[in-house]
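User: I'm writing a tutorial on reading structure tokens. Could you give me a worked example: one chain, its sequence, then its tokens, then a sentence or two explaining what the tokens reveal?
Assistant: Sure. Here is the example chain.
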Amino acid sequence: MVAKYRNILDKFCTDFCSILDKHVKYIVVSGFVVIASGRTRGTEDVDVIIEKIDNLRFIKLHNELIGHKFLCMQSDDPNEIYDYLKDNTSIRYTYRNKPLPQMELKFAKDSLDNYQLKNRVKIPLTGLDIWFSSIDMNIAFKEEYLRSEKDLEDAKHLRIVYSEEINENEIKEIKKMIRKTKL
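And here are its predicted structure tokens:
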């Protein structure tokens, strides 16, 4: 079966995440979750959180990404790139010779990120075989932490599309965790 992609972001994210899946536990978070769930809005990047791994494991991941025509925008040196991640600085990958779209990658940095990784899900509605943070988590983050007009509209969209599946008690608990961890 040949996969059908709705847009370049679907293919880009699937290509990248299929490599991640071989090396590390990951989740796609934020704007792309909403776009993959049917909201029409622009973005130039896909945000991904990965579990913390050691340098050797990262080098293997990085080399496979490079072998599949991805490029890290910060450096060609995997040791230097790893240092960025260890310092809680995100890095960006893109297809070689194409500045967009971009994959913004960062290590899990706190208990909330680890909670998201532990409770990651595949969302059938998206039609994509990738791991996402939960819909409840995305709603909570957008309403409690990010709170921009765009994020509140994203949360509203998720509430409508997944109205039968969201768990308000879970959203409330996540918001408490956000206040404790992030605010």
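What the tokens reveal: The CA atoms of residues 146 and 160 lie 19 Å apart. The mean pLDDT is 93.
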